[in-house]
Amino acid sequence: MKPKATLRLLLLMLGLLALTAFIAGCGGRVEAQAPAAVALDTVLPPQQAPDSGLEGVAWALVSYRNADGDMTDVLADSPITMTFEDGNASGSAGCNRYFAAYQVQDENLTFGDVAMTRMMCPDPVMEQEQAFSQDLAQVASFQVAEGELTLLDANGDPILVFAAPVQAVGATQPSLVGPVWQWQKVQYSNDAEITVDDPSKYTIQFDEDGSVTVKADCKTAVGEYTDDNGVLTINLGPTTLQYCGDDSLSDKFLTELGNVAGYVFDGDRLVLNLKMDGGNLYFLPEQPATGPQPTETPQPEPTAAPEPTVTPAAGPAPSDEMKAFAGEYKVIVPPAEADGMIIVITLNLNEDGSLTLDIDDLGAGESESYEGAWTAADGVVTASVEVDGKTEIFTMTVDEDGNLVVKGEDFALTHIDQDIPLHKQLPIPVDLSQKAYVTLDIQAGNPLDPFIVSVNGGGSLDASALGGDCRGYVNIQPVARINWQGEAEMSRVFFYSDHDPTLIVQSPDGEFHCNDDANVLLLDPSITFQNPEPGVYNIWVGSYYPDQLIPGVLVVTTREDVRVETFTLDGLIKRGPIAAVTEAPGGRAVQELVDAITNQKKDVKTLKPDKAITTRVTANGDIPAFEFDIEGQICNGFIKGTPDLAFDWKGDADQLNVFFEGDGDSTLLVVTPEGRVLCNDDASAENMNPLVTLDSPETGRYAVFVGRVSPEAPVKGKLTVTTEADAGPEASAKE
Questions:
Q1: What one-character DSSP code corresponds to residue 592?
Q2: Pick from 58-62, 69-73, 641-645: least confident
Q3: pLDDT for the residue 21
Q4: How many angstroms separate the Cα of 473 from the Cα of each of 26, 547, 549?
Q5: Of the candidates 343, 220, 266, 244, which has an alpha carbon nearest to the alpha carbon of residue 91?
Q6: Which one of 52, 152, 273, 554 is least enclosed by Cβ atoms within 10 Å?
Q7: Which distant-in-sequence residues (6+ apart) come within 8 Å of 430 by Cβ?
Q8: What CATH number does residue 601 fall under?
Q9: How confident is the model at residue 52 (pLDDT cuts 50, 70, 90)?
């Protein structure tokens, strides 16, 4: 039977018809799009608002107009709030904090650009947040009636409806500083979640002086933090080095605190947002003791006729057969296609007659969980599962190995022994038949030691399917394969990078050896083999999040002095400095820029004396301006092949000022009608916005190119051309 047909048949037997559509549609990961927003420093200046009934309270959103134009309720676990104060509206958009200037006149209400923090949350929350941001831009009027605030569009249709005030402005607000925050759970962007059994063991406290104190189970640490309007950075010093036990979350807690990028409050709950849209850490404030507890239990006051207490009847004790069959059963379904998904189905039969059914997509990080009940008699397991409010019943037989076989089909779920590595009980979900990205033949005693190769880590396969302590996300095929021959007392493999990788090595005996961090202070992984046996070693480098690319250096060595803790590339080859031979910049003809003016047939503006031209520009070009052979100067930045602005000048003026005000470091390049090229990087030593001044400008057509200094990200801003002599860009401090 083909794997795809087998999976479909199993799901059909379980009655999970709705889930098949979900699994079929999860072949690729869908990334949530951040809501349309502007940088925080572009919020409109506050406008004084009259007494309109808006201010003085914090409103809670009840419903909003979604992308389909329908009114829908706010997600229960992602509330949206709004407070009006001094001409600025602010609050939580469900995931991010937002700010927007507003103006009110009579019943008319308008909002300026919405500025938001840049955190990411699960897709439904981000879709709600994006709709909320777009709705704000459409607001034209408002109504306050019976404790309800309704915001309407230009047609008078409601688009945002807020409930009665939920909290008076000026009431006690949550504060980052002061409380001892207890860690409750971490929820990652791939929906994986870790719940903390004892939050009192994992705490963090922020002090006004910028210091932070952390308790991580049996370990403690101190450090510093910075809080810039919700953008939070935590830098911890060395921690104590006690071993807290295999089940401790101490190392995970310390690692994730170092990955924090910001925070928001959800009621009394503190939510720390992880970098790279990784997820959220959730905290609640420590509750102070209410006083000494009595040593004796107070007796209740007597009543005339106390009511008898009724103890619920206990359920039937499990039969010996149920005790024998209780446990975890699992099957790994390989992908039907080369780039398909690996599905892991886990069935837990509990002795009390309850069951859970989990279906995980290892490629997309998606999972579904269902609850049900079961019983066993005469070697047949009868189970029921609740699916969309409907009970589905199915039966399975137990084979001689203790595995469950779906009745009528040759499809078995393996009975998992917790004392045996998972990969020894189930088919390995990696593909060793494929060629590794890098293959090395290494002989012990070779003078070229350490062996170094550059590789990319990361992938979509959850390495936990290999069992043991394997973590991270890897490719199905190995990133490297080592053919090792000879004898050595020790061999070490480690990965050196700027990220948080994991490392998995399969030794010739088929065992998987895994490491996440070399120690509590070092995120790079390292695995050491004593007296390594000859044979093939398969190596995977994992990423902390799915489909995250992690470049770095894979190192294999038999030298004790080569360790990831002290490894540096600059110490491997001893050579004195050699003078570099630098080619002169240039190589592109200026005529390309002049031709751009000639080819500009439309969207040409006209500049008139005593007037100005302003336009919004996004600088996202990839052509290096410094490659053009411009006499007497070298232009900086990366520009597009067509001008960002073309204009005709026919007037008479002493000078023209061309300048750009952007949200990042930018440059300007101006081509005159005579074919001259002028460029500028910074208007002054203190201002990184560029300015080009043309004295006694000649009549004709001009072209303006806006460049970005860094090719990694676009720069957005406003381009201005004016005859005003003293005009120039607003000062923007150089980074």
A1: H
A2: 58-62
A3: 30
A4: 17, 7, 10
A5: 266
A6: 52
A7: 461, 466, 474, 476, 477, 478, 538, 540
A8: 2.60.120.380
A9: low
